[in-house]
Amino acid sequence: VSLEIIFSLIGLKMFIIAKFGFSDITGIDYSPSAIQLSGSVIEKEGLSNIKLKVEDFLNLSTQLSGFHICIDKGTFDAISLNPDNAIEKRKQYVKSLSRVLKVKGFFLITSCNWTKEELLTEFSEGFELFEELPTPKFSFGGRSGNSVAALVFQKIKVSLTQKILVQINA
Ligand SMILES: C[S@@+](CC[C@H](N)C(=O)[O-])C[C@H]1O[C@@H](n2cnc3c(N)ncnc32)[C@H](O)[C@@H]1O
C-alpha cells in the first residue's frame, strides 16, 4: 500500500502498521535517543519500509509534507503539558499537522490527557471528526467515562473565504 504515513511518535503501533504492508512510513521524535531505540527495533524486526527522523513536530523540515495519515499517541499530550507557553504550542501543533497532511488525510490521536470533547475543540479548525475508536471505560461515583480518548479526524478543505473569516475573527 503506497500510503505515506507520518508518526509524531515512536511506538509499537508504527511497527504493527509496517507489518500490515504500508510502504512509506516516517517515524519522528525530537529525542535522538527515542529515534536510536526505534532504529534498533526496526533492524531487529527487519523492517525496511520505515524512515526515522529526529524532528520537532512544532518546527518540521519543509520536505515533510503530503502525508495521507498522521498518528499520534502521547505527543500532543506531552506538548500540552509543557510549562512554557503550552497554549501557543498547541496552536503550533495544529498548524504543523495541517501542513504535513493532505486534504482528506486522516489524523489518529490517542490521548490520556484530553477528553473527546476537548479534542474536538482543539482540532475544530480545519479538521472534522471521522470516527471515535473504542477505549476502556471506568465508573466512579455513579458516573462513567473513558480513561483514554482515541479519535480519527479528517482534514477538510478550508476555502479562502473561511480562511479570511478566521483571520478577521481571530
Ligand atoms: C508520552 S511519549 C509517547 C511515546 C510513544 N508514542 C508511546 O506511545 O510509547 C511522548 C513522546 O513525544 C515526544 N515529543 C514531545 N514533544 C515533541 C515534539 N515537539 N516533537 C517531536 N516529538 C516530541 C517525546 O520525546 C516522547 O517520545
Could you characterize the architecture of this molecule?
The structure is a single chain. With 170 residues, this protein is of the alpha/beta class. The protein contains 6 helices and 9 strands. It has one domain (5-169): 3-Layer(aba) Sandwich (Rossmann fold), CATH 3.40.50. The protein has helices at 12-19, 32-45, 75-80, 86-100, 116-122, 160-169, and strands at 4-7, 24-29, 50-54, 67-73, 101-111, 127-133, 137-140, 143-146, 149-155. A 7-stranded mixed sheet has the order 3-2-1-4-5-9-6, sandwiched between helices. A two-stranded antiparallel sheet has the order 7-8. Residues 9-11, 28-31, 34, 56-58, 73-75, 78-79 line the site of S-adenosylmethionine.
Per-chain topology:
Blueprint: E1 4-7, H1 12-19, E2 24-29, H2 32-45, E3 50-54, E4 67-73, H3 75-80, H4 86-100, E5 101-111, H5 116-122, E6 127-133, E7 137-140, E8 143-146, E9 149-155, H6 160-169
Parallel strand pairs: 1-2, 1-4, 2-3, 4-5
Antiparallel strand pairs: 5-9, 6-9, 7-8
S-adenosylmethionine binds at residues 9-11, 28-31, 34, 56-58, 73-75, 78-79.
Descriptors for this entry?
170 residues, alpha/beta, Rossmann fold, seven-stranded mixed beta sheet, two-stranded antiparallel ribbon, 35% helix, 32% strand, globular, binds S-adenosylmethionine
